[in-house]
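Appendix B, record 7
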Amino acid sequence: LATEAVPLLVAVADAPRLETAARLGVGVQLAERGPPAQRARSCIGQSRVIAASIHDRAGLARRVAEGVDLVLLAPFGDVPGKGAPLSDDEVLEITEASVVPVLALGAIRSQLDVDRALALGCAGVAVRAFVGNAADGGAAITTLRGWIDASRRERDLARRSR
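Structure tokens (predicted):
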């Protein structure tokens, strides 16, 4: 999630969901082992965003070569059943190597999580549970946007004071 316009992405793992995304006119988020980005592009069109989940540099290289618009790097934090979270060094290695925006995904629950993601070079964050499990999804999104804005302001102030 960035403070600019946020595209709506539908998680896709198979052809029927690609067809649904095409019919709805929305972008897609491909799973790490999901369909190739070229297949998604041919189904949903050139103007829709294609994101892909990745877990390492090999996944980044493969998905960038396929032509994705951005990647979701996971697990950024501790998510039960998703394996060990990526270390700061692993996140930094991927953000520095990427030619597309990298969003941190997984266990984004606080201002500190957003600060860490942006400090490590992520362009923003992606969330599922934070909004999906919230009593008020709109309020959760507003909170998340506030954390991103605050983190960016703090980083800008730090740069200016150097």
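Remarks on this record: The first helix runs from residue 15 to 24. The helical segments are 15-24, 37-44, 57-66, 88-97, 111-119, 129-132, 137-160.
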